[in-house]
Request: fold
Amino acid sequence: MSASMKNILRTVCVATLVAGPLTAAGAQQSAVGEWTGVLTTPSGALALVIRIRANTDGSYSGDLESLDQAAGQRIPFTTVTAAANKLAFTIAAIGASYEGEWKDSEQTWSGVFRQGMAIPLLLKRGAPPALKSIVGLDGTWRAILRRDTMNLRLILYVRTTARGTGATLDSPDLGAFGLAVQQFDRIGDTVQFRVPDAQVEFRSTLRYENRTLEGQWSRQGQPGTQVTFTRDPRATGARTRTQEPVVAKGYRAEDVSFVNPNDASVRLAGTLTVPEGRGPFPAVILITGSGPQDRNESLFGHKPFAVLADHLSRNGIAVLRYDDRGVASSSGNHAKATSADFATDANSAFRFLADRDDIKRNAIGFMGHSEGGMIGPIAAASNDRVAFLVLLAGPGTNAVQLLLSQRRLVARSQGASDEMLDRSEPIVRDILHAVRAAPDSQAAIDAIRRALPSDRLEMLGATEAQRDAIAGVFTTTWMRYFIKYEPGPFLSRLRVPVLAINGAKDVQVSPEENLAAIRVALADNRDVTVQQLAGLNHLFQTAETGSVIEYERIAETFAPSALALITEWIRARFGR
Reply:
């Protein structure tokens, strides 16, 4: 069970590509709210928080947080149903599901959580149980474990919140991240803890003004060894986001809104940052990645679009960033929209800027991250006034190749074997091709059902009851458009300057495959810059492995080298 539970933290990026609420007709209101429960696994107990929300269109959505593995990281549900005193949800990204019944006498949901194996899970309304608060140990602690001829890095994260003090452990060289640390305690200068997933116990002494933990690292079946953890002075206490702007400096920020003329129900709200001084200024419109995103593209505790806007506007470039339709202050229905619909939102932002006297009308471009790097070219295809495009980890291959590649890269980054991936990849490929070939949603659903007989469901760790839920995930309006999308025809029509960059450690959009495809598609464009940036991940952070699990733990939001590259590229072409 320990390996399968670690999958809660694996392939989280897939959730940003496929997750979305499923309408639950007649869902009962009592399911809405925060619920907590404890999974009792062979290797230890894991506290979970389940959050269920009612959407304005009658659908339900929610997420799961594993407090002992990744406090603060929420994994979105794919489907939610709550009717006739039954609660069920699925999380396609991690192959997990839950089915429970309401026990009125106990005021709990009693059911089974499945992810590779079935484990009873009782959910109670309210906050999770408190942990003991431990003084003086918050921060990031690093050590080297020497085993035979190998030196294995260990990273211990200790964090105190309102719930108490919790800890997790990474072993990057073994591809293990977010291991739950239990029985974490301090008595005087003695600090000890257990890591059930690794069958490890550690008992140590706090020394040198609380800068080191020196002690015995014991693992079942192996001789004990001395290990010294040293606190990282750059990463003590709460994780900081030092790049986030506190106040506007060198520019002014203005709250704005504009309507999409293609859909009167969509009014988009955002922030426009304009450099100080006399304009007009070149401008860029930021387009978010997959899933409902606010104007800052807030994710994993970071606000990359706020950092981008701050840097660009301090360097003479106006920036418009806006909440996705149906998110935060923007109206509309995000769940029923496709990338083509989001492209009309981007062009609405363009029209808004083009009408302003402080913006240079012939120097307005799009900058899209991830799916935004797909939406930008779609928008530009119907807008001959767009002056430039910047693609931040944008797709160059079709979605079938992208998703298969992403699945493999992410799983490998978390220690999965090629043998395991090879067994299930044909099933995923068949599902994607079935959706791609189907003329309509019902035909796609029927094809997926045929592609998932009982033996194949078992290989995916799913049950017979989940067959239709899986079909539902891959046949939403957004997903069907995404799977059928071909970037090449849109990119090849671009005759304006294009900057396409990827982090070399990106495991969500493979830099090698996608940048090569972008180069081919833009072969007839005279002003194209395609560059792979060493050491950066999908969010353009300086990373160790590129794994999704690192995103939240990295203090940096956007690498300064990438910010400088983008800024100078735009200024060289459009300046003031």
